[in-house]
């Protein structure tokens, strides 16, 4: 059994934790939300890199055997430095699934909904440059969406109206595939389906990300499926009880069958 750290700017990484609990239920998890500073997508590259490193070092100090950087923005800006600094443990990041989207699109028009920082990052654009020129990517930032999700308003009318504005250029371009390029955005599936219907294919990389974690654990002999459920510790830089409550509301996993605890870490204010 391993201790897995999962870090995000807020509640978005709960989509990754949810998938991890499905594929790897037997491990213990620490979920660290830097909610007092959410969203990361509109902050400077330097700040994101520094803060992400600080929080990953904290998780490493708690004894984590692996860390999932469950934030697209933090992955884009900081993961290379984090891996170099914390080279003794596996560091798994997330990035927009533009490659599988390009392969699955029928008409070659793909929408990418992500944060401004992710879309401008060198990592994202380097990946984009490796893909076929015959696929058109409609890149769209989603300012305002993350704060609404953080406030528990993923399915509110306000969110639906803002989402409609952000999706309009993607709809106008005729995209048949939409990449959810922020870990918060899977929680908008219901709203997206309401606006786009079922004909648009949604790409969420959480399943592939957790498969990568599983491979890393197996390589180190730390993955044993014993049929048990590990414990989860929810840590927040803002409101740990609210984080726990939102986890119960947003996640499909049954948290009642696990040992859970919440903790406010004031050092990260």
From TrEMBL:
Pfam families listed in its UniProt record: Asp_Glu_race (PF01177)
Catalytic activity field: L-glutamate = D-glutamate
Catalytic residues (UniProt): 71, 182
Species, as recorded: Polynucleobacter arcticus
Underlying gene: murI
EC number: 5.1.1.3
GO biological process, one term: cell wall organization
Pathway(s) of this molecule: Cell wall biogenesis; peptidoglycan biosynthesis
Function (record text): Provides the (R)-glutamate required for cell wall biosynthesis.
MF-aspect GO terms: glutamate racemase activity
Family: Belongs to the aspartate/glutamate racemases family.
Entry protein name: Glutamate racemase
NCBIfam families: glut_race (TIGR00067)
Binding-site list for substrate: 8-9, 40-41, 72-73, 183-184
């Amino acid at each position: 059994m391993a201790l897995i750290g999962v870090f995000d700017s807020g509640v978005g990484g709960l989509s990754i934790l949810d998938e991890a609990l499905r594929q790897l239920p037997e491990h213990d998890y620490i979920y660290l939300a830097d909610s007092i500073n959410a969203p990361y997508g509109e902050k400077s590259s330097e700040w994101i890199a520094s803060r992400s490193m600080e929080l990953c070092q904290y998780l490493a100090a708690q004894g984590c055997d692996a860390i999932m950087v469950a934030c697209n923005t933090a992955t884009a800006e900081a993961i290379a430095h984090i891996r170099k600094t914390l080279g003794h443990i596996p560091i798994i990041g997330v990035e927009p699934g533009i490659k599988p989207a390009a392969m699955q699109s029928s008409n070659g028009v793909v929408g990418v909904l992500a944060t401004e920082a992710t879309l401008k990052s060198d990592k994202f654009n380097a990946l984009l440059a490796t893909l076929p020129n015959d696929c058109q990517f409609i890149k769209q930032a989603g300012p305002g969406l993350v704060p609404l999700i953080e406030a528990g308003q993923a399915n509110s009318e306000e969110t639906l109206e803002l989402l409609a504005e952000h999706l309009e250029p993607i709809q106008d371009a005729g995209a048949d595939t939409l990449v959810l390029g922020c870990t918060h955005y899977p929680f908008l599936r219901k709203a997206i389906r309401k606006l786009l219907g079922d004909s648009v294919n949604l790409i969420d990389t959480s399943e592939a990300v957790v498969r990568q974690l599983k491979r890393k654990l197996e390589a180190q002999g730390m993955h044993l499926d014993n049929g048990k459920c590990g414990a989860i510790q929810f840590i927040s830089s803002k409101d740990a009880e609210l984080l726990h409550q939102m986890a119960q509301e947003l996640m499909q996993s049954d948290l009642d069958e696990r040992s859970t605890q919440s903790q406010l870490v004031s050092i990260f204010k």
